[in-house]
């Protein structure tokens, strides 16, 4: 009961905190893999409390039509021709929440994407994250 209450609260509060729209195009690969993207949210963070954005936290809620599915979720960040990947492998049983945090390692604009991969490393789907991605690293 508590999980349902928290989930419903999250769904109602997401528009207030900058949830992004996910196009149907990005869901095609997920649907073929039997995975539904229920919700996606990314929030900018000021981890060292200096007034500058220096990280992004991404929360996804996934549902699987299979009894159990394994997926590797990755934040792929590009800055000055360098790529940094934050990754988390999860098992989706029914509905599952996952979050990843990307912390900037350099000042400037970072292009962020959220990727879903099977356990063999084959890309299922990639979604561009439209976060305010100007970071200040100190």
What tags apply to this protein structure?
alpha+beta; 4-stranded antiparallel β-sheet; 3-stranded antiparallel β-sheet; 2 helices
Description:
This protein is of the alpha+beta class and 138 residues long. Helices cover 15% and strands 50% of the residues. The chain contains two helices and nine strands, in the order ααβββββββββ. It has a four-stranded antiparallel sheet. It has a three-stranded antiparallel sheet with strand order 1-2-5. Strand 3 and strand 4 form a beta hairpin. It is elongated.
Helix content, binned percent: 10-25%
Number of helices: 2
The helix/strand class is: alpha+beta
Integer average pLDDT = 79
What's the order of the H and E elements?
HHEEEEEEEEE
- Profile the largest sheet: 4 strands, antiparallel
Q: Into which percentage range does the β-strand content fall?
A: over 45%
User: Which stretches are low in confidence, meaning pLDDT under 50 for 5 or more residues running?
Assistant: 3-25
Roughly how many Å apart are the termini? 43 Å
As a whole number of angstroms, the C-alpha radius of gyration is: 15 Å
Q: Could you give the order of strands across the largest sheet?
A: 4-3-7-8
The beta-strand count equals: 9
